[in-house]
């Protein structure tokens, strides 16, 4: 990837800003700009924003889930499912002082191919893929333009499929991870594709020949050192970077990360239709208790966008998706992104140099 240090900042839709990506790059790591649902002209502006702040390599991320690339047709939303979803959301609306709604969500915009065109035209150094397996033609097109491709998998079998598609590196995403679980087909339950980082990383390392990056629950230098011990070439951190000064997350979300413990996360599909690890809140708990179904990917989010927006406006995390991994209990401050890179690397060096003295395996 052309970076100096084995540390990547995760792409985080709505959270990772061009300033964060540039700061991580300038500190020697790889920053990844989220591109999901960003219109092409805006994506181009953000890429140029990074370049105005840094001349280091960076990546741009897209989600290639089978329900998003291309988007699932709106006709897949049945009247009955919509009625049940809106009935639960209307309870949340009443709490937030919003009028009830029975509206169908708008169509999920089909922006992936236009975004890939921007990535290729702008010669972005690295194309990062979450929740999807790229077509060989897309990988070849990137390689022809001198662009490296990195993609994320949550099982060894999926990692093998990614390797066969020709990607240059693979992120092994353990189930501790904050945000969406990286599968390209929605699994029957949240119990599926839920392998912890400690068990997943060595299996992916054994399964593929390309470099592997460990992700999920890693927030400090001990985690990075452990990832390297498992055979990974580096670590990708998400939640740790939500609680930084450059993060665009609302203040109540950053405060929750600092205050809440690792027992506070749950895996829910109630926010977007796909399974994601978030901080437990009234939205996740009351939705689960209702027994209501969820709509296809992102259609679920668009159906309740007014709820999320009102919760944010009111400065409340009660009805807002606060994506967080199980490392959240170790986050207790709000540093600059570059300081995260520096402190994680310094701590990892310390851990690795002290290990031989602390361990006697005979
Ligand atoms: C707030 C947030 C938003 C995320 N958005 C994306 C995204 O847009 N694309 C993606 O590929 N992964 C996304 N992820 C998942 C990360 O790529 C990564 O797997 C995860 O953050 C690693 O676990 P950790 O949060 O415990 O460090 C997101 C994670 C978080 C916490």
Please give the structural blueprint:
Layout: E1 7-9, H1 18-26, E2 31-34, H2 40-53, E3 58-63, H3 79-96, H4 112-121, E4 126-130, H5 136-144, E5 148-153, H6 156-164, E6 169-173, E7 179-180, H7 197-207, E8 212-215, H8 221-229, E9 234-237, H9 239-242, H10 251-259, E10 265-268, E11 276-279, H11 282-290, H12 299-303, H13 305-313, H14 337-358
Parallel strand pairs: 1-9, 2-3, 3-4, 4-5, 5-6, 6-8, 8-9
Antiparallel strand pairs: 7-11, 10-11
Helix pairs in contact: 1-2, 2-4, 3-13, 6-7, 8-14
The chain binds flavin mononucleotide.
Distinctive features:
362 residues; alpha/beta; 8-stranded parallel beta sheet; 3-stranded antiparallel beta sheet; 14 helices; 11 strands; globular; binds flavin mononucleotide
